[in-house]
Amino acid sequence: MVSMLDIKFIRENREQVARSAADKGYAVNITTLLEVDERRRTLMTQVDELRAKRNQIAQQMKGGKPAPELVEQGKNVKTDLAKLESELNTTTNKFDQIMATVPNVISPDTPIGDESNSATVREWGERTSGAVDHLDFALKRDWVDFERGAKVAGAKFYYLKNDLALLENAVLQFALQKISEHGFNLLTVPHLVNARTMTGAGFAPRTSEQSDEYAIQDEDLQLIATAEIPLTGYHADEIIDETKLPLLYAGYSPCYRREAGAAGKHTRGLFRVHQFNKLEMYAFCAPEQSNEIHEKILAVEEEICQELGLPYRVVNIASGDMGAPAWQKYDIEYWSPVDGSYRELASCSNCTDYQARNLNIRVRRADGSIETLHTLNGTAVALARTLVAIIENCQQNDGLRVPKPLRQFLNNREEI
Length: 416
Fold this sequence. Notes:
By secondary structure, the chain is an alpha+beta fold. The protein has helices at 7-12, 14-24, 30-60, 68-99, 134-140, 146-152, 162-181, 195-200, 228-233, 290-308, 354-358, 383-394, and strands at residues 119-124, 144-145, 159-160, 185-188, 192-193, 222-223, 239-241, 247-256, 275-285, 312-316, 328-336, 341-350, 362-364, 370-372, 374-382, 395-396, 399-400.
């Protein structure tokens, strides 16, 4: 049963849930949902009563020839029960379908509106201008090959080559070292997940035209758009003792995205592609821990940018630019001296109990009580975009200045 939000919470906070859904751009009729929910609960009560009556009649018919009236009564109960069970099944399916479209509510601090309403929290670093576009810079040095990528896979697939491929590995090694220092434990993850995991993680598009995932035909499998998805499913159907929380993980994987609905976004070169590598941070925690951990994940992302010398700003994302699972979301946008503007580099979201509820991930308290825990995620490094940011901000006339923390992974080279 789909239950990303607690139906009891929806009943008690219908206006807040409806307003948050509208603010996020999701067309959800909460009134219809609650009417279906009421009918579903009525049917469940009626079915339970008829089942009890059926069992009572069956008990009375034991040990001898039953009276004709009792036999007739049993037939009528069986017929009525079959009708009600069928209606209950139909109603429950309708309830689940509507519930699956209800996004998480938003935090009181979330700006309302489309992405233009997102609010800058702070900025760091010097904003420069006049850099060469990353693709032109890389092509001149034979660092990337989109033509051969298109030949073997299609448009927006690519090969990284030579020093740029080595630089990607250096960025990964640096980021792994950094997140390990902050207590995140690395997992390799499946690159394919089933529908339950995909849906449970909340990767439901606003419309069918916006679906971003690649599906495997005739199998219950989809390619992951981020390691967040299999990391979310890691503790599905488990109860975790609160003394073990928070659990901090990191997942490294390719990310596969159709990039549906990306019209109007910056798409040149490595910035928006169908496959890229990413290191993702993830946390399972008690509800009272999630705000603090959200800030911790953001702080790690900022530390990575600062040590790489990438100017950036932190943005509190507006409601209309948030996905279904997020209660609050921050983006880190790096300064592009090519465009003279900020571009998205990383994000981190507090999803509260939205993902965990649907995948049945819970915490056992010291007093023995059990409740749904909270989940959070954040980008350590999205490698393709990080390479773009480094090329744009560290380029020199005769090459690329290697950020200091990466040099140990490039034979101590200061320039490539």
